[in-house]
Amino acid sequence: MRLLLVGTSHRLAPVEVRERVALDPDGEAALARRLGEGGEAVCLSTCNRTELYLAAADTDAAGERATAELADLGGIPRAELEPYLYRLEQEAAAAHLFRVAAGLDSLIPGEGEIQGQVRSAYERGAVGPLLDRLFRHALHTGKRVRSETAIGESPASVASAAAALAAQVFGDLAGRRILVIGAGKIGELAARNLVKRGAELSFVANRTFDRASSLAERFGGSALPLESVEQELAQADIVVSSTSAREQILAREQVERALPARKGRPLLLVDLAVPRDLDPGIRELHGCFLYDIDDLQAVVEETLSGRRGEAALAEAIVAREGGRFREWLASLDSVPAIASLRERAEAIRRGELAKASGRLSDLSEGERHAVESLTNQIVNKLLHQPIMRLKEAGLGEEDERGAPQGRLEG
Amino acid sequence: MRTWRELPASVRKVSMAELLVWPALLAYGEAAVAYAGNVRNPRLHYGRLATWGVRLGWLAQTALLGFQAVGADGFPWSTWAGSLNLFVWLVVGAYLIWGCSPRYRLLGLGVMPLAAALLAVSYAAGGTTEAEGAAWGDVLLLLHIGLVLVSFAGFTVAGGLAALELWQERELKSHPAGLLRHRLPSLVALDRLTVTTVAVSLAALTAGIVPGLARLPERGLDVLIAGTVVLWVLGASVLYLRVRAGRRELAAVLALGGVGTVIVLQLGLLFAHVA
């Protein structure tokens, strides 16, 4: 069995091609079953890539089948699809999957979602010994990269930057109250990130009350008319504003009036709107931390450059794990030779014991057991060095591997 | 050549003190250097080295204090140098509560060089031997010294926490892009710890002042007592401003002022002993 990868990703194909060869979870499972007949197959499909991992005796035939399946799936003539496809074999395919699982091949280096997507693809795949080992190792590598480097620690989007800043101010966000001004998508995304970290969406204020109610209902909060925002400032810990209003929504004086009732509790205000909803003068108030879209964007930029720095460390981990997998892959080639050697040695041992059975008939059960054990030990010790040599030879060049196998089997 | 037992008792005592003070000094110094290294390059394992330096140094100093307590005929920390030794041990002990957390390593950068320097001063001034001090039977004096030193240590750590809180506040206000890179404790956590530490220190100071009052008629009022009262007022103001008035920043500034007062009081003690 040899390992083969056929796929396409954001590095090679535009979104128009990627979206046509994308698979939903059921499609991934069905294609893996079809391609896995007589071998093994896992289909990994995300918004950035569709990759088919195959283990087959004949990689040329398997590659042809995989390409044909992708062309059928996208309804794209094969000749048009092929320039967007890559094809990797053996350790190159494994190293690629390790980089993917570590988030190093993602649009945003170190993004965490890919680890779960690789796991799901593996669980839906038609796996056998080779792909099982490959995917387990890839998931282990992804986990190592995330725990031993800071590549995935910092926020990579404006919404997650807002959540990270909230954590920097409040620590644990459990029980912290969010006031959302504007019921648009951006505000909702930022609020969702905060809620994921334990905060509660308490109030949603919007010019259209119905839209405020709809968003508030989804998060278990209450809707407010825009005019009542000031009254709730004393209760809120985090204010997220993202209206499309042309005029300012919250003035410095309004926030200042709410401060005495807050008893020194910090207030984080996140202004995601352009033009800005919140008076920039708010940032001069004691205990008020105001961030606008440019501030958050700067945090994200810095984070991404930090992630790129961490990527070098992550690449080193991936290279080490890739090396370990390569060793295992190479050792597979020597398995039949080792098995044949062991069988032959065992046959000789049993044959010699059978020949001597007449002379050993007077032995007690315990003495018989001792002889069995002794002959086993002798055989194991004699085989140790040739087996080690075979394994070492397995790590060498392809053409060098055939020689020792042939010699020992003959 | 004489054996250890054949050496005079005074030589044996000094040697044992040296045997314990040097590891403590070296470990504290190593921790201080490692904390500095950790700030320059957080990726290397300096932080872990620093934490082990703090732990081992504190254990060595604990053994030193134990040896002093057993070896001395009286309370060995009633002298200025001796009290400085005990003060360092209390400060590092208080810091150890948070010192193992990577997020508080910047606090270590402030605490450990100070601890190493003060222990060195105490050693040079003879505070690490079994110098005779007040009698063990003078319970009021021992309580007074012990509790006041506990409060001094607490105010010192609270000052460090307050400095970190004010720095964190400034960073959050000024929006540097690398804000999240420092991995400091959250503002709210620093605020809570500062206030808690000040509350505990104030309680210890109050409890330490009471036995001191019993000695007031024979000693009379002096600058040191006035300084202690100033420290008490500062601590009480921190609690009032934070808990009742909701003035977090001003409370942190006053907590920082507490360290200044402790330094002045320590210097005052030095001059009082020299005089």
Chain oligomer state = heterodimer
User: pLDDT under 50 segments of chain A (min length 5)?
Assistant: 397-410
Based on CA atoms alone, the radius of gyration of chain B comes out at 20 Å
Mean pLDDT of chain A: 87
Percentage beta strand of chain A? 5-15%
Question: How much helicity do the residues of chain B have?
Answer: over 70%
Instruction: Give the amount of beta strand of chain B, in percent.
Output: under 5%
Low-confidence stretches of chain B: none
Named at the architecture level, the CATH assignment of the largest domain in chain A is 2-Layer Sandwich
Number of helical stretches of at least 4 residues of chain B? 9
Strand ordering within the main sheet of chain A: 7-6-5-8-9-10
Supply the CATH superfamily name of the largest domain in chain A: Glutamyl-tRNA reductase, N-terminal domain
Would you kindly provide a written description of the structure presented here, covering whatever features stand out?
The complex is a heterodimer of chains A (410) and B (275). Chain A has 410 residues and is α/β, with parallel strands linked by helices. Chain A folds into three domains: 2-148, Glutamyl-tRNA reductase, N-terminal domain (Beta Polymerase, domain 2, 2-Layer Sandwich), CATH 3.30.460.30; 158-300, Rossmann fold; 333-409, no CATH class. Helices cover 57% and strands 14% of the residues of chain A. Chain A has helices at 15-18, 25-35, 59-74, 78-81, 90-101, 113-124, 129-148, 158-170, 185-196, 209-219, 229-232, 252-262, 293-355, 365-394, 398-409; strands at residues 2-9, 40-45, 49-56, 86-89, 177-181, 200-206, 222-225, 238-241, 267-271, 288-292. In chain A, the strands form two sheets. In chain A, strands 7-6-5-8-9-10 form a six-stranded parallel beta sheet. Chain A has a four-stranded antiparallel beta sheet with strand order 2-3-1-4. Chain A is elongated. The model of chain A is unreliable at 397-410 (pLDDT under 50). Chain B has 275 residues and is mainly alpha-helical. Chain B has two domains: 9-134, Four Helix Bundle (Hemerythrin (Met), subunit A) (Up-down Bundle); 138-275, Four Helix Bundle (Hemerythrin (Met), subunit A) (Up-down Bundle), CATH 1.20.120. Chain B has helices spanning 9-40, 46-71, 80-99, 105-124, 139-174, 187-214, 216-219, 223-244, 248-274; strands at residues 74-75, 134-135. In chain B, strands 1-2 form a two-stranded antiparallel sheet. The longest helix of chain B has 36 residues, at 139-174. Chain B is flat, with a radius of gyration of 20 Å. The A-B interface holds A 154-155, 164-165, 167-172, 260, 262-266, 283, 286-287, 289, 291, 295, 298-299, 301-303, 306, 313 and B 43, 168, 172-173, 175, 177-181, 184-189, 242, 245-249.
